Prior knowledge:
- The structure holds two protein chains of two kinds.
- Chain A has helices at 14-25, 42-49, 74-81, and strands at 2-9, 31-34, 56-61, 66-70.
- Chain A is an alpha+beta fold.
- In chain A, strands 2-1-3-4 form a four-stranded mixed β-sheet, sandwiched between helices.
- Chain B has ten helices and 23 strands.
- The longest helix of chain B has 19 residues, at 372-390.
Amino acid sequence: MVKNITIFTRNTCAYCGMVKKYLGVKGHTYEEVNIDQHPERQVEAFKLSGAMTVPVTVITKHDDSMEVVIGYNLAKLAPAVA
Amino acid sequence: MEPRPIILYGADWCADCHRARDILDAHKVAYAYEDTDNPDVHQRMMAASGGKDEIPVLVRGSEMIQNPSSVALMEWLGVEHAAEKIKHDVVVVGGGPAGLTAAMYMTREDIDTLIFERGVVGGLIATTDMVDNYPGFPDGIPGLTLAENMRKQAERFGAQIELGEVMKITDEGEYRRLETTSGDILARAVLVATGSGYKKIGVPGEEEYYARGVHYCATCDGAFYKGKRLVVVGGGNSGVQEALFLVRFASHIDLLVRSDLKASEVLRHKLEQAVQAGKITVHLQTTTDEIVGENNAVVKVVGTDKTTDKKVEFSTDGVFVFVGLQPNNDFLKASDIALDAIGFVTTNDHLQTSMKGVFAAGDIRSGATMQVATATGEGATAALTIREFLEGKLESANDIHAPQQG
């Protein structure tokens, strides 16, 4: 079960919109961290994902285990939030 | 008697395994999941499957089924095909400019239309910084804005967009059956508008450093390189346009071009200005041979200067790749639809493919010119042709065949 979801995004990133749209369709709420507006949090996204890309979606489960999905990857995102 | 337990052998990276699990979950069928990335589990899976290395494998007592289609799996489970009830007049595969335009035309005429999109609604243009050559926008328009506008316009007339993937199309007479990540769907007509995606170069280091120094989307990842050195690979319109976009972040860009610049005159002019300003250095006749990293980060690109046949090296923090387009045709290879030698869908003048009731438009079509304006045009043409087909006024195509290989 999903406890909370954080998405790291940027203004110009089309795939970020798709993650938000998908989570919306599935009825999930999420916190969005726009790195263009909060450049100080870029390091956090990098530490979590090891990737220089957005979107990075961080799903925290009820047992506090964490799953990080890099990019808009339905094969990973769908089961992670199911 | 208690039903025998089901074991599903699969892996997290395997899309068919997720599809199988989704079906089991949707029908509330209990099962034990075994991850074949564990070598012991893999060995058990191979024993169960009789030595065939393909997942998912489902085992129930002495029965075994390996990577079944959605329908075959539901039959094996003995559950009702709920998806059988899902019928549409038209399913559009791919929500880029061609698919969205076709959907807009069809829904406007009350033809029930469902769009399937596995990636970004709007397609490749959604990830493009600026679209300069789409009529009606004298100053150009950001690709993401154009894509969003097309989506809104299609949805205004009632087009539904499903976020998921189509795996296979089969002709079943009156209907076409689409195997999708949301189960099976039946459609009287199908429009294939899956477009094209950026090619990979296929060199050492490219896969290894994907998203950690190797990128294919400048609008997504460019901002991570503020004040850093970059290499951009590709001298076509995309390569030059994206290099010009990346200039706003990077301290310097080396543009590697395998042969000569093929970008349009306007882009070449803008490139010349960036070269004069010392922001970009263009290296013509230069191949990209390897992407080299240290401590988990890209540090240089090794190439060959074809004029001297000598190795050349470019120190860099990241590489953006734009070396052309390839058809998004994975699922078409699994369907009985004729493709040309490169993998684009063969059509006749009515945009009909070799399968009855299946049409194609946009970048995926053999002979397409890879422009937004032509994709929307073909989408409109396809919509009008599909309407004729639904009204029984269009004969099926029997003149489309895969070209002879060799």
